[in-house]
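User:
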Amino acid sequence: MSNDDSLPKVLIVNDDASTLLALSGLLEDPSENPKYEVFTVQSGEEALRKVLKHNFAVILLDVSMPTMDGFETAEAIHSHPRSASVPIIFVTAYYGDEFNRLKGYQKGAADYLFAPIIPKVVQAKVAVFVELNQKNLELERKTRELEAINGDLRIRRLQDLESVNAALKTEVQERKLAEERATELATRDTLTGLFNRRSLLERLKHSIIHANRRKEGLALMFLDLDKFKEINDTYGHEVGDELLKQVAEHLTSVVRESDMVARLGGDEFVILLEGFPDTSDVVKIAKKIVQTNSEPHLVGSQQFKSSATIGISFYPQDGNTAEDLLKNADLAMYHAKQKERGSIQFFHEELNANERLRNEFEQDLKHALEHNELELFYQPVISMTSGKATSLEALLYWHHPRNGLLGPSEFLSRVTQSTHISAIGEWVINAACAQVQKWKSADDTFNLPVTVNLDIQHLQSDFFQTISDSIAAHNLNPSAIEIEVAEAAVVRDFSKLKDVFQFLNEKDIKINLDSFGADFSSLSILKTLPLRKVKIAPCFMQNGKKIQGSQTATKKITEKEADNSLLAVFPEDTSLVAALHALAKALHLDVVAEGVQTQAQFDALKALGCNEYQGSLFSKPLPADELIRHLQLARVA
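Assistant: Predicted structure:
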């Protein structure tokens, strides 16, 4: 606190020492030219003693104080002639309490500051009232000087005073409007009008302090809209923005007025719930939010469905800081999204362990890319009639430094959830093209196309251009590389993949459908895709009973083939394998049977009329050099 009597004086009254220190720190200037002389007290009684000794430009007064609250203190200050006109700014955390706000103005409040406290807003408000005080003092000084002048000048003085007062009033109004706008921009999301991340963290920090004092809990919901990116990308940002506004309105309508709804950005929202005694009430609200968001949203003339996935963390059991609670709620949401979209997940410590494993996997993948730990193995596709290889399938293996050689089934599903998915896909394409180029350089008669499996995420980006570019960069004919996509992915994202498939087809890059028959909803869209061949799902090769054919279909196959050996090999799936083969043939597609392990399976599939097969009966996946030797020894190359 400065002792310069020439400086404007500011009094801060607050029973909380940390708040008192924070506010005074915003106003005190450690330089040689401070702006104000700041006084701090912790009670209404001390405040009254101070105002009787000093002339204050403005007072920042806490509403909630023991013994003598802010309203009583303000009334007492303004009852004394010395301090009757001192402007008082009330400081409170209750933004939406209209009754107490009106009461404050009745007790003489000039303005309000609401938690969370924003430094620039505090400084701006104090500056306005201090400047007004200084101008009033200046006016009073000039008034005293003018009063010594004769009566003729007195009239002019009054006119000047009115003009100055009018200008001051206009300036104050303009500054208050600018201040309100600055506050709005600093604390609110400009699209939805909800609170932003900064406001959320400030409020959450204060809520944790209050919850700790009162021995209460609080809950934090982290909400993410499902498939919002697809809607935004397909229909444009205007539709996406309108959808976000509607979601914001729905969220606000579901929670209490005292709860806080914030938008962090994109399609992520957070809801802060205070004063909940147990989890059951939180679950009810979360279920209501999920139900509300599952209903169609009308944007213009179109309806959109976008469910919400929610992760929830609780204070104090899931974190003692705002950052930890937000991180853990986000982690719970991410875990819920992996399991089932539109679901609710509470945070628990196992999620942290899973997150550590996920991060470790991410680092291992990064290391694998940087240290050449990945390798393509190749498995031939064999003609049923000639016994020769017709193509090769490239399969990704990983020479893991700790876990040894890992096959695709041991890690590939986790790669699809990784941030390195694009880099892995690009590596596979380039490695396959480079290997084909190497084989052709060694033997110019080599003409086996290599099939590369791609995840759906690759084909949703501009990765298909990477495929075309890599083929060109390695001086290969487009027929040298074929693309294989799982049937389930095609069914799930058919509308997006049509254009991608068309692009690849125009570039003469052939496309195959993997695991055909695992999802019969694909049958209606097969004829619209530029496919070359389909691979019958391996589940039909494993004596499986996952899908049973109709009695009618079974009867037709039995009568046509008159071969009881089929039923011995595929007891429940004979009709399905035959039906899938017949359907593919009707669409002029080659048929490859995957996962063929036994001679009995081979004989049965050949009897059904399958063109090609792939599986351990001929060869397991092998490194490039071993594969060529194997083909040469088998005399099928």
